[in-house]
Amino acid sequence: MRVSTSQLQKLTIFTTVLTGGGIGTMYCLLQKKFAESDYHRLAVQELEACPFAMESLGAPPLKVHNIHLTDRHNLVNQHTAQIKIPVTGSKTGGYLYTSSLREPDTHKWSLKQAVLKLREGQTIDLLNPPPSEHTQIGHWQ
Questions:
Q1: Considering Cα of 75, then 39, then 60, then 120, what sign does the dihedral take?
Q2: Is residue 48 within a helix (H) or strand (E), and if so which, with residue range?
Q3: What's this model's pTM, rounded to 2 decimal places?
Q4: Sequence-distant (≥ 6) Cβ neighbours of residue 76 within 8 angstroms
């Protein structure tokens, strides 16, 4: 049985589109799962609750971007979550580095570390915000 070149081309195009659509769907579902997770939500809420960090970014408006799935800082398992969330405001952007633990008894996530590192190199520890607006807190290791 001979298959024409035209039929093979159509099959190739169909397979490529189907595969690309599947990969795109999986990417969107993974990003949605991260954005809806408690460890992600708690970190963003902590950022939004820190006036110094929000002012440093030029937020509101605060834009929370998709995490980079291949970034080595993003590690999640049943008990711990360590993620690096890209954020931007009208002045600048940076990364929100977070670490959370899941309580074994309640299965609820609790934020253990939340550090905003701005593009300019300044870091702000959101769980221990600076006492004054002009204080710079260390650097993310």
A1: negative
A2: helix 38-48
A3: 0.77
A4: 39, 82, 83
Residue 119 contacts by C-beta under 8 Å, 6 or more apart in sequence?
Answer: 92, 93, 94
Q: What's the mean pLDDT when you consider all of the chain?
A: 88
CA distance 37 to 14: 35
Calpha distance 123→141 (Å, rounded): 10
Query: Tens digits of per-residue pLDDT, 49-80?
Result: 999 999 999 988 999 999 988 889 899 999 99
Beta bridge partners of 115: 97, 125
User: What's the rounded Cα separation, in Å, for the pair 64 and 57?
Assistant: 12
